[in-house]
């Protein structure tokens, strides 16, 4: 248990100094229903931090927002309407990310969910869309190499992009790129 009198009180500054983003703490807290006791551990907080970073990384490759995934939005709203069950709402959010819906539709629904939960998903997506002109040129060159089935060159260009801080994800619709941090 965390308590000031027991000397186990943690401050936000302690969390930040430990390399964990404050929104990761919010993500961690939202994973437990408010009527249940939250059992804190540094490992669990770090896992929440990694989970949030994984979410940011995944959505950074999504296309621009398009039509939404109404069934997931309904399930999300129902979860929150059921005694403010944020843990269940996060589960719906994770299932949406893992679904086969088009990325733009998933992103639109994630933005709606994030407007409620405040996890910074939209900000993370926006930040990672700003590629330099040099990175865009290398991406175009890599696309040409892949079209010509020159896999060795495509791999070298992927490594070059990674060195520039740009991640590349190959999809059936072509390559997707985003800033890694």
Describe the structure.
- The protein has 181 residues and is mainly alpha-helical.
- Helix content is 60%, strand content 7%.
- It has helices at residues 12-17, 22-30, 42-60, 70-81, 86-97, 103-117, 121-127, 133-147, 151-163; strands spanning 166-171, 174-179.
- Strands 1-2 form a two-stranded antiparallel sheet.
- A hairpin with a 2-residue loop joins strand 1 and strand 2.
- Helix 4 (70-81) packs antiparallel against helix 5 (86-97).
- The longest helix has 19 residues, at 42-60.
- It is globular and about 65 Å long.
- The two termini are 34 Å apart.
- The mean pLDDT is 90.
List the helices and strands and how they pair.
Elements: H1 12-17, H2 22-30, H3 42-60, H4 70-81, H5 86-97, H6 103-117, H7 121-127, H8 133-147, H9 151-163, E1 166-171, E2 174-179
Can you tag this structure with a few keywords?
single chain; 181 residues; mainly alpha; two-stranded antiparallel sheet; 9 helices
Low-confidence stretches: none
Number of helices: 9
Q: Percent of residues in helical segments?
A: 55-70%
Based on CA atoms alone, the radius of gyration comes out at: 19 Å
How large a portion of the residues is in β-strands, by DSSP E?
5-15%
Largest sheet: 2 strands, antiparallel
CA distance, first residue to last residue: 34 Å
Total beta-strand segments: 2
H and E order: HHHHHHHHHEE
Order of strands across the widest beta sheet? Answer: 1-2
- The helix/strand class is mainly alpha
Mean pLDDT: 90
The dominant shape is: globular
């Amino acid at each position: 248990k965390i308590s000031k009198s027991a000397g186990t009180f943690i401050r936000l500054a302690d969390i930040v100094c430990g390399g964990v983003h404050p929104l990761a703490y919010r993500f961690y807290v939202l994973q437990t229903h408010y009527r249940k006791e939250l059992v804190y551990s540094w490992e669990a907080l770090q896992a929440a931090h990694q989970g949030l970073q994984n979410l940011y990384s995944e959505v950074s490759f999504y296309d621009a927002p398009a039509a939404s995934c109404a069934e997931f939005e309904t399930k999300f709203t129902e979860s929150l309407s059921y005694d403010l069950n944020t843990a269940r709402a996060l589960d719906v959010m994770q299932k949406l990310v893992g679904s086969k819906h088009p990325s733009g539709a998933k992103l639109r629904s994630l933005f709606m969910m994030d407007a409620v939960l405040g996890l910074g998903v939209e900000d993370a997506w926006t930040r990672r869309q700003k590629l330099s002109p040099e990175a865009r040129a290398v991406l175009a060159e890599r696309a040409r190499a892949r079209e010509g089935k020159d896999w060795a060159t495509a791999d070298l260009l992927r490594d070059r992009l990674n060195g520039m801080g740009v991640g590349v994800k190959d999809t059936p619709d072509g390559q997707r790129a985003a800033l890694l941090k």
